[in-house]
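Revision sheet: structure tokens.
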Amino acid sequence: MSKFLFTMLPANDLGLPTRLVPIARVLADRGHEVAVFNPAPVPAKLIEDAGLKNLPMPSRPMPTSPDDLAQASSAWDVEQMFGALFANEEFVRAATAANVDVARDFQPDVVVDSFGLFSCLAARILGVPLASVLQGNFHPASDGFLWWKGERPAGLVSAAPMINKVAAENGVAPVARCVDLLAGDLSLIVGTPETDPLPASASVDYIGPIIWQRGNATLPDWVHALGCEQPVIWVYSGNPRYANTPTPIDSIVVIRAAIEALKDAPVQVLLTTGHQAVPEEFGTLPSNFHHAAYLPGLAMAEHCALMVHHGGHSSVMTGLSAGTPAVIIPTITERESNARRLAALGAGEIVLPVEGADGEKHIDVAEFSAKVKRVLDDPRYRKSARRVAESMRKYGGAEEAADRIERFAASQTESRNIRTSTGA
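Predicted:
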């Protein structure tokens, strides 16, 4: 049996743990020793629900990173996003050291990572084999988040100088781009070539959608009691607020738009927030709105007539897996990239928000209402979503990912044993 450490960018939302927890659970059920590292509160709930060990944050001083969230939300690609978030040398050094501590203490045979820049660097510092589980637009071979705009502009900010300084201090060769660190010795892509296209030259394996849901998970009776006289729309905002004050990456606009457009519509709206509270500013929700902090995603996607969400990759995968169309309000360029891919497949529509003078994102409510009605009324959207769902079924998802990671771990152990026996 092998030891696997699952790591990721510790953002306080469910996107990254949703794709890693199912793989970790499969490997743990096969008898491997598995641990996860994400100390953020909301991912910790998902990890606990899956019955997995979540390693604690090392007791190290962790300076605040003076991030530029406006730049991160409008980033051309991963490289510019990291440049906006990780431009502080003190933070880069501390975050790297913390991830080295975690990996050194657990001593994994393989690190399995999704979008964790510092955990990827830590794996290289310690010489631990790295398997990456990424969406297409996170991979180094991607054309970035704004792929439809053509060539990437020159001179965009990058955190590579900071990363390379810390890497050099730990005996690791420099990289041209931070994003190059994300590609593992084994690179698995969540999705399919249709949903997450990459050049043929990219050395990746597609594993299809990965969605966390316990095998016995069911929707509560009150959801089924909503009846079928009116369409059920599932509104998922993700994290409405990432701080006590508005930030450019907030998804509160999704809730606000849904309330404005749907409060008097002949629909039932089920709002979930991914273990987050509904902001107090909304007060009492409209009578046709029903809130749950969390519900089983695939079951909910299969139950509803339409999804409305912020464009997170895991939300897109959940809807497509269920063959359910969506209307997406993408809150950052990464999510706009995902939304445009879905719309190009004919499985939904996009409503782009704009930033107002108050620093909040707003949408054209009339446009949103019209697109919701269009997707509900036109069967071609659901037909397209179901076609994509059918095409996804030939990929193995979490089980296939676990198979590949197991084989990778075995090959690494065999190589290590050969080197030891030959004295190389």
